Amino acid sequence: MERSSTTEADELDLKELFLNLWTGRVYIIISTLLCLLIAIVYLNITDRKYEVNYTIAPIEQSDQKLNVGGLGGLAALAGINLPSSSNSDFLSYKFLLASEEVAHFVLEDDSIMQAIFKSEWNDDLGKYQAPPKNKIITILSSLKSALTGNSAKLYSPPDDRRLSAWIKKTIDISENKDFGFAELTSNSSDPELIAQLMVRISDFTDELLKKRYIANSEKTMEFYKIQLSKARAREHREALATLIAQEDQKLILASRGSHFVAKPLTAPTISLDPVSPKPSLTLALSVVLGSFLGAAFVLVRKAFKS
Asked: Which comes out higher in pLDDT, residue 177 or 84?
């Protein structure tokens, strides 16, 4: 008996809820249309973002593990770095891609820099300057300073640190664990600029590692030859001879102007369709949100009347 009365009460509540919503259907329709209009305006004024992908593969080199006894310790005492494996070189490569050292090379390309920091570049003055702030941003900045106690940062033109931070924020550098490739990915409204930047930082990073190796190779080779003249054990001499041969091969690779540590597996690819915003999803969410807000308004209005 109690169960049937509870069911009847629930049915009455649902009927009353439906009647209230039906009575206020005009408000729900207006709210839905208003949210739909906002979504349409947003889709028409917002920038379309495209996905840019760039895959980089390590240069395959022999990676033999040689038994050189205490050679590593002697080299460390002499201030000499023994040649690292190609895998270790590639780890350094991925780390340096968004570093300040690489950003320093990009700074020399005025066309890229002015495109990245276009809001700060003044064509008339031919230099960078702080972008103008509207009243809302000024008020928010003052409020933030008052709440946190931190004074507003003074403007500084683009430099190595700023560009490095921008690259880290804009380009996602990940590793394909199945194949060991480095994958650069970014969603941008200017995909051509990002694709050009990806190629530049990859080339500059490879060139930086190449220059470091060439600068150190002469000292390393001299150390190997001295140790070879002192070695008595056959295994030790064979290991040193193999290391010298590997260094020669690596030095030839570095000197001939080709890729040294990594090479592009593919050219940068740009998605055919924008990945953001998604029109169908945005319109559907606007309809749902508008219906919900309209229904909430009707129910609150009914509650106040009651």
From this structure: 177
